[in-house]
Amino acid sequence: xxxxxxxxxxxxxxxxxxxxxxxxxxxxxxxxxxxxxxxxxxxxxxxxxxxxxxxxxxxxxxxxxxxxxxxxxxxxx
Length: 77
Hints:
two-stranded antiparallel ribbon; mainly alpha; single chain
């Protein structure tokens, strides 16, 4: 699993705090995880969460991102 590998490589990546600890990670904000890795992890997590929503909700969120206007609940990710 990618999560297990990352946790073995970086002490600042730990099992997800409120999530399924097998599949999700938490990252210490003041830690030593490289910015590019952190961005990659965030992009993957965003994609997983977005993919779990209805197609209608996905369209609403993506249209809001493309227009630059707030789309309501996107801040909850």
